[in-house]
Design brief:
Blueprint lengths: L2 E6 L6 H13 L2 E7 L11 H12 L5 E6 L3 H4 L7 E6 L2 H17 L4 E6 L9 H9 L13 H8 L5
Parallel strand pairs: 1-2, 1-4, 2-3, 4-5
The chain binds 4'-phosphopantetheine (PNS).
The site of 4'-phosphopantetheine has 10 residues, from strand 1, helix 3 and helix 4.
Length: about 160
């Protein structure tokens, strides 16, 4: 089965991420959305469990999409699958340099690993999890940025004022 791994922090998952997931699910037989956890240095607003639950909730109607998490290197994680392809979304040229470097490093660690890029839908080129967190922290409107299923969670957690 041809598997795509869509890795990210997903802190939180946005409509832009969901757009990439849906399109990847039309191309590959199986899509694994992998929430990468940065160990002790993880400065995420949402805990790994919260990020996994939110990603599961927004993808539950997509039959060939599953959600996983991993604390470590993506290139190591990818060895669990048979010749998987890493899929990343590119919003602008500014994303490219970083993504290109990561793809090369991943390939050095796991030479079988290919990375493919999907261009973000123009509707979402402005969107990032960081922007969502900023808006959420200040109690701004989130409807156009994140899936409806997680609106309450994001508002509640961001509203606690810890960040
Ligand atoms: O959503 P993000 O924060 O842009 O995702 C970046 C992510 C998590 C995909 C990237 O940092 C990653 O793959 N982290 C796992 C650690 C790793 O494999 N690092 C080596 C690549 S330089």
């Amino acid at each position: 089965m041809k598997t795509a791994i869509y890795p990210g922090s997903f802190d939180p998952i946005t409509l832009g991420h969901l757009n990439i997931i849906r399109r990847t699910a039309q191309i590959f037989e199986r899509v694994v959305v992998c929430i990468m956890i940065n160990g002790e240095k993880d400065t995420a607003m949402f805990s790994p469990e919260q990020r996994v639950r939110m990603a599961q909730r927004v993808t539950e109607r997509l039959p060939n999409v599953e959600v996983d998490y991993f604390n470590g290197l993506l290139a190591e994680y990818s060895k669990r699958y048979d010749k998987p392809v890493v899929v990343k979304g590119l919003r602008a040229v500014t994303d490219f340099e970083n993504e290109f470097t990561m793809a090369l490093i991943n390939k050095k660690i796991n030479p079988e690993l290919e990375t493919m890029f999907l261009t973000a839908s123009e509707k979402y080129t402005f969107l990032s999890s960081s922007a969502v967190k900023d808006v959420a922290r200040h109690g701004g409107p989130l409807e156009e940025f994140i899936p409806i299923e997680i609106l309450d969670d994001v508002r509640k957690i961001a509203g606690k004022g810890k960040y």
